[in-house]
Structure formats: structure tokens, C-alpha cells
Amino acid sequence: MRYAIGIDIGGTTVEAGIVNEKGDLIQKESVQSDPSNKEKMFLQVIQCVNQLLNHSSIPEDEIYGIGAGIPGKIDRRNGVAVFQNNLPWSNFPIVHRLREALGIDNIVIDNDVYMAAFAEWKEAKMLEDELFVYITISTGISCSIIQGGNFIRGAGFAGELGLIPVFTHTADHSMERLEHAASGPAMQAKARSIYVNEALVTKDIFIHFTRGESNASRLVDEMIHALTQGVYMINSILDPHKIVFGGSVATYNPYILPLLKDKLKNYLIEEQLHILQNMEISNLNNGQGIIGAGLRAFR
């Protein structure tokens, strides 16, 4: 059995895990990110990997390679983290630096959503000609598209679902980007303008929602209204065989899926209704970023 290290790098945390070629996550470690400057951020990545290796029963010489998922724009061919809006790396030679620090030559990088999507695609066991879409709803909103094991990348920025304009529930039905209407931070900002005496975070909104609180119910309904429009656009353009939702907002609040389906069916024509039976929440326990990154090291 071969093993690889998968790294999921974010603005809040860095997670690293050992993954076997079947996609099993053997062990993982997590450290806080330090986005105050590029070197401190890089040191946190190295600390996380070293912590993993120090605690692992898998010998380092049995590690086949490393896959790293990084937010934002990535130059895969040259191993460069080009731009991230939540990390201090600009044209940062991440692959070269990882090779120097860890002494492992086989290193693959990609956008973090693409890495997570690869794990979900493997889990879904799609047929060769079937088209798969992974949508993440978290700090941001994005998606990745896979057919026959290959990513549909366009000119390099395909899948930025959060940039799609959607109609809001405001009186004038104005338009705003989906990410500004339905992501975790967007919901948090809207909640704090309503619950002025509470320092709410996103999970608190859903706690209030499950208790039937009217303001939280309205916020969640607005989020579902916006998200439905984005999913409908993706579905109409691609007609995928399956859509899987991940990211913290989706995975920790799986009851949003039936709400989304209920609204979506009002948009769909008969030929599109099949997607309602082929939409699901990820069951990889938020480990898809690590798993996908590790699996990509074997390709």
C-alpha cells in the first residue's frame, strides 16, 4: 500500500493528513494559520506536516508524495501560488519551498476546491462519461467540474460560482454576487445588523433557525433563495449527473439540502428534474480537501 500526504491550506487553519491510495484518511493534524506574512504562513504549513510525520506510524520513506490544496489562483505547471485573497502569498514558489523544507520531490498543487472535488468524485464512483459537480459553501462559494476524471478548467478560472449575480430578497430585487448573499461571512454580516446586541457567528444563525426563530428563518430563506439561483444556472449550463455539496455551511447544516431542492424544483423543466435525486451533502466529514490532495499525489 502506498501513502501520501495531503495538505489543505486555508486562511484560518492548515490541515495535513496521511492518505492511502484507496482514499482512506489514516491520520491528520491541524495548526492555526498565520497570514501576517508569507514566511510565517509557510512555517505553519511545515509545522503541520512535521507534526503529522512525528506522530505517524508510517515511516517517512514510505511517503510517495505530497498534494497541497491552496485557495485562489494556482500555477500548477511551475508550482506557484499566484494569488489568494486570504493568504500573504503572491507568486510564491510553494512547490520549490516544500521540496527544500521536506526533502520530498513528488509534490502536486492545485486550487483547494479542485482538490476537495477530486475526493468527492472518487467517492461518488462516477461512470467514465458522467459529469460531476462539487459545490463548496463556506467562507466562499465555488465549484469544480469533473468529467471522466478530468477537470473542466476553462482558461483557468472555471467554477467561480460565487461570482455569479443573483437576485436578492430585498424590496427592489437588486442583484449581488452569490458569495455576498449566501456564504458564511455574508450571512454573519447580515445577522449582526439584525441581532445588534449579539456577536453572532454563522453557526449561531443556524442554531436560531433550528429553534424556529423568525429572523434566523428569514436569513436562511434568503440564503437558500440566492443559492438556488446559482445551482440552477450551473445545472442549466452543465446538466450534471450528480452535484455534491461540501464546505462548513453545507456539511454542518445538511437540512439546507431539502430546502434547496424544494425551491429548485420550481425552476426546473421536466428534462432537468433528474438532478433532484442526484444532489447530496458530502459524507467525508470535511476531510475531502486532505483526501483529494493526497490522492492527487498518486496520479
UniProtKB/TrEMBL annotation:
It comes from the Bacteria. It comes from Virgibacillus salarius. SUPFAM superfamilies: Actin-like ATPase domain. It holds the Pfam family ROK. InterPro entries: ATPase_NBD, ROK. Belongs to the ROK (NagC/XylR) family. Gene3D superfamilies: 3.30.420.40. This is ROK family protein.
